[in-house]
Amino acid sequence: MPLHFLFRVMTISTLALLAPACGGGGGGGGEGGNDAGSGSDAFVRTQNEYMPLSAGTSIEYDDTSVSAVTLDTGDFNGQGVYAIASGELTLYVSSTEGTISLHGIDGDFEVAGATITKLRFTGSSTSLPIYSSESSEGETVDVDNGGTIDAVASVSLGGLGFNPVIDIEVTSIYNDISLALDYGNLPAREVALSFVIDDTILPGTAFEQAILYNFTDTLSLTQGIGIAKRSFASNDLNINHEIESLTGLPRTIWFNNDTGSPSIAPGSDATFSIDLSTISSNTYKIANQAEINALGWITVQENESSETFNVELHTHDDLPTTLTSVEVIFENIATGARLSGNVTVALLK
Questions:
Q1: Burial tier of 135 (Cβ tally within 10 Å: 0-12, 13-18, 19+)
Q2: How many angstroms separate the Cα of 236 from the Cα of each of 82, 192, 230?
Q3: 312 CA to centre of own chain
Q4: CA nearest neighbour of 177 among 169, 185, 167
Q5: Which of 18, 19, 85, 199 has a C-alpha 20 to 30 A away from that of 165?
Q6: pLDDT tens across 35-66, in order?
């Protein structure tokens, strides 16, 4: 059963001025994660496993679009907010260990002669928690905690620009699913967002305009990758795409479980690489090594002779019998910056 988040954004007809933003970070850590790894170092997760973000990286999709990640620019300078730009749409999100939050949206939404190009959440809550690790499927969460959430919109109407605070209703629902993609099979947490703008902007003026506009954005999130598949639908814009490749990020590694006997999947490589170059153990370490070791059925370790990181799966009572992903977090030894990778095991039938 789905998880519902419901928040009402109260109407106030005022003017405000904002501008766009961008972002970047890393799987469990972001741009400057705490020193962590194997041995006595304590691992501190700073991003959600379903939304690892690293500045300067991108995901390429099968419709030729590129989802590029940048950090801390424009409206969100210095706030740790990431911009995920893909074609005509940009999502502004933050990712913590337990929560993925939405701070704003850029796009071109045409409604009743007006064009909305930006939405920024303001008032008592400047971000909307669209996913929480502490929630269970089917659990309804009151995101605004009894307060009010306002959205400042950038609106073009009659050749003039306005910034009214408008009324939006947003619902978020999540389900765990399996994705059968050309890229490879992946488990995903599907977060379906529904937006309803139903308001009158600039009431009592010559520019008074009723606005009713609906759109949905469904994000299929995979551990250690992020948005593996996306479906956006509105009156004037539709996006349907799935992951095709990664840039600046560790290549996904697949294994098969054949009745308890794991083996590397055909076409996959058990050595981690980024953009066709192996990840050097002179540059990176595994930040969440102890977390991975605790699983028992998977080993990610350094090959000292080749200075690479290799993955092995073992016969084990807990070896997954359903499609399962593990996030592997690489931390730059010199800078602390983190990148997330993914190892996925599938059951052969």
A1: middle
A2: 26, 19, 17
A3: 27
A4: 185
A5: 85
A6: 333 433 689 999 999 999 999 999 999 999 99
Contacts of 276 (CB under 8 A, 6+ apart): none
**Whose CA is closest to 330, among 322, 341, 319, 321?**
341
Q: How far apart are CA 83 and CA 313, in angstroms?
A: 35
The C-alpha atoms of residue 104 and residue 93 are separated, in whole angstroms, by: 7
CA distance 22 to 77: 8
List CB contacts of 77: < 8 A, sequence separation 6 or more: 21
Looking at this protein, which amino acid is placed at residue 185?
N
Could you tell me whether strands 164-166 and 149-157 are parallel, antiparallel, or unpaired per DSSP bridges? antiparallel
Rounded distance between C-alpha atoms, residue 44 and residue 30, angstroms? 11
- Identify the bridge partners of residue 226 per DSSP, sorted by sequence position: 222
Helix (H) or strand (E) holding 293: helix 289-293
What spatial distance separates the first Cα and last Cα of the chain, rounded to whole Å? 27
SS3 state at 246: strand
Cα 228 to Cα 17, 121, 182, distances in angstroms: 34, 26, 11
Token digits of residue 138:
């089917």
How far apart are alpha carbons 119 and 109 in whole angstroms?
Answer: 11
pLDDT of residue 11: 35
Token pair of 347 as six digits: 């059951």
Element of type H or E holding 291 = helix 289-293
**Per-residue pLDDT tens digits for 91-150:** 999 999 999 999 999 999 998 888 999 999 886 678 888 888 876 675 555 455 444 568
Burial readout 199-214 (b: 16 or more C-beta within 10 A, e: otherwise):
bbbbeeeeeebebebe
* CA contacts within 13 A on the Cβ side of 63: 12
Tokens describing residue 175: 């389900």
CB contact at 8 A, 49 and 96: no
R_g of the chain computed on alpha carbons = 21
Is the C-alpha dihedral spanning 26, 30, 31, 34 positive or negative? negative
Give φ, ψ of 107 to 5 degrees: 180, -170
Amino acid symbol at 136: S
